[in-house]
Every structure is written in C-alpha cells, then in structure tokens.
Inverse folding.
C-alpha cells in the first residue's frame, strides 16, 4: 500500500466517534460489527474509511472539527457552515447530499459530475460482513430481495398486482429495510437466501443523479443476479448484459424473472461475472483508489490552496457560504418537487 504523501485528517464529531476508536481497540471493529453500523453518510464516508485507513497502516489523524495544514475529509451531510474555517482545506464526501460548495474538493459516489474540476468518483464502500447467497440453493429462483428503505422501492414493485404476478411464478418479494422496526438487527448484509435482487427506486431525477451503484456491487459480491432500474450509477458500471438486467416496470421485471427461470445458464453466468466484477470494488481496491486520489489531484489542489493569499481565501469563504445555502435549498426543492421517472 503506498503511503500518503500529505497529512490526512478525518473530521468526526464527538457524537459519531465509536467507543473502539476512543479506546484504541479498533481490532474489535470486525466486519460483523460494521454490518450493523454502516448506516448514514458520516458512518459510511468518514468513520468507516478512517477505520480502514488505520487498519491499513496509513496513520490518518482525526478531529472533531477541520484543522489547518492538512487534508480534511468531511461528510457533506454533517459539515455545517459555522465549522468552515477560511484556511482549512476540505474534501467533502457528498454521498446523496447537495453539492457541497464549502469544499475545496468533492468525492462523488457516481460518475455524473466526475468530469468537473475538483471532483472525483470514489465508489461506495462494499457492504461490510456481506453473507453471499448459499450455493446449496442451486438454480432456485424463489426469493426476490430488496435491500433498503421500503418507501424508496417504487410502489409498482410492492403492490398487490406485482406480488400476485410473482406468486404465479412461485416467487416471493423479501424486503430487508435499512431501518428495521422494533430495533431489530440489520439484515442488509445477508444475501444467503437471495436468489435475485431488485432495485427500482421511487426517486426524483435529481436524486437518481446522486445515488451510488452499491446495490449492483453488493449483488456481485453476493452472487445474485440483479434487476435494476434506470439509474446513472448502475449504467456507469455496466460493461455487458451479464452485469445486470435493466427493468423499468413491473411487467419488464416479470419478464426478466421468466428469462432467468428459463435459462439457468444465464443465472450462473451472471453469478460468475459478478464475482469477477466485484474484485474491482474490494476494500483493498478502494483504499488504493482513495490513496491515489489523495496523493494525486487532491494533493495538487491542496498545494494550490496553500499558496493562495489569505485575502483570496477569505473571499472564497464568503462566496462559498452564499453558494452553500443556495445549493442546499435547490437540492431540497429538487428532491421533493422534481420529476419522478417511475411515478
């Protein structure tokens, strides 16, 4: 693993610091532990990569607020304006938040904006502790699984008509919510009984443009064919028809299931293709990508920022503060009022 060429600091507010981090016992943060904690932008984009960096021997620092003279990694969801010191250099992990105008550099979880200066694509980390599909299930296609918030699955894929059509094929829709009721344990990582996964989300076009391809990548790791909606994040990664089956309605989803049912060889080919593709998105591969970005374009931007006169930094702070407020308002409006391709 290459070393970091510049000091990197993860900005983790005290309320988000895990007890194992405080006590210096990060070896106790196993994949099983992470499987229950990988919820929210702060956990997935700041705390977990901090843990991964520490375990990889990269020796990052952490602080509750940004500090000067280092590359600060922050979550756009959890980085308020009042903590934006004019002199600090900020790399904001956007996740599905607004465009973080307070940042000097932005990590995006898909490639929609990756062509812009000061922006880089950094894929979402794979699901920790993922339990793959049980090979003993063989060629069965009985369980169609959705992993995520129930309300995000387009209603056409959870209404009575679709469920009845599935039953006619002896298929059942299984939903593992991101926030299980009654304090139950997360099952987002357990694909042992998943014969195929589905993700056609009821989102606005603006939301689609921020979403990662996690549901696809996790399906590859799990060895399950994926039926996915029309989203930029999925299409970014598609190299062949074996990567996933694109569906845009309950009818095309039923057709895809019938296609998989009638051609067991296709199911197996998709599983084997998924295992190969998943190697591009292991924790080790993504740590290396982060280091390459931090040592490359981020380091270049950091050096340019350090050479910027203080009056210019103050001017940029003022402009970014105004733009940040506008960006938040626009994102909130688009999320509620924007067009929804799936109704």
């Amino acid at each position: 693993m290459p070393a970091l060429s510049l000091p990197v600091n993860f900005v983790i507010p005290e309320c988000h610091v895990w007890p194992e981090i405080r006590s210096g016992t990060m070896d106790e943060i196993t994949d099983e532990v992470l499987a229950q904690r990988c919820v929210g932008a702060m956990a997935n984009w700041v705390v977990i990569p901090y843990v991964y960096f520490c375990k990889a021997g990269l020796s990052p620092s952490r602080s509750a607020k940004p500090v000067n003279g280092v590359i600060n990694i922050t979550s756009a969801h959890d980085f308020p304006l009042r903590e934006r010191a004019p002199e600090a250099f900020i790399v904001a992990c956007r996740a599905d938040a607004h465009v973080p105008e307070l940042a000097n550099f932005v990590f995006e979880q898909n490639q929609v904006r990756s062509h812009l200066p000061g922006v880089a694509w950094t894929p979402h980390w794979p699901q920790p502790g993922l339990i793959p599909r049980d090979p003993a299930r063989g060629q069965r296609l009985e369980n169609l699984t959705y992993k995520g918030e129930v309300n995000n699955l387009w209603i056409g894929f959870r209404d009575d008509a679709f469920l009845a059509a599935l039953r006619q094929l002896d298929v059942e829709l299984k939903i593992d919510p991101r926030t299980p009721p009654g304090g139950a344990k997360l099952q987002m990582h357990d694909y042992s009984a998943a014969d195929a996964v589905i993700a056609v989300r009821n989102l606005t076009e603006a939301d689609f443009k921020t979403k990662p391809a996690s549901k696809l990548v996790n399906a590859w790791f799990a060895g399950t064919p994926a039926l996915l909606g029309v989203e930029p994040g999925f299409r970014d990664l598609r190299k062949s028809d074996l990567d996933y089956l694109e569906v845009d309605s309950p009818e095309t989803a039923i057709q895809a299931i019938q296609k998989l049912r009638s051609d067991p060889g296709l199911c197996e080919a998709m599983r084997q293709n998924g295992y190969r593709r998943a190697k591009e998105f292991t924790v080790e591969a993504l740590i290396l990508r982060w280091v390459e970005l931090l040592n490359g374009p981020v380091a270049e931007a950091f050096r340019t920022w350090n050479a910027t006169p203080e009056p210019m930094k103050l001017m940029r702070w003022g402009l970014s503060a105004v733009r940040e407020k506008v960006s938040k308002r626009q994102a909130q409006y688009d999320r509620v009022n924007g067009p929804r391709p799936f109704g």
About this structure: The longest helix spans residues 310-337. The chain has two domains: 8-126+282-337, 135-281.
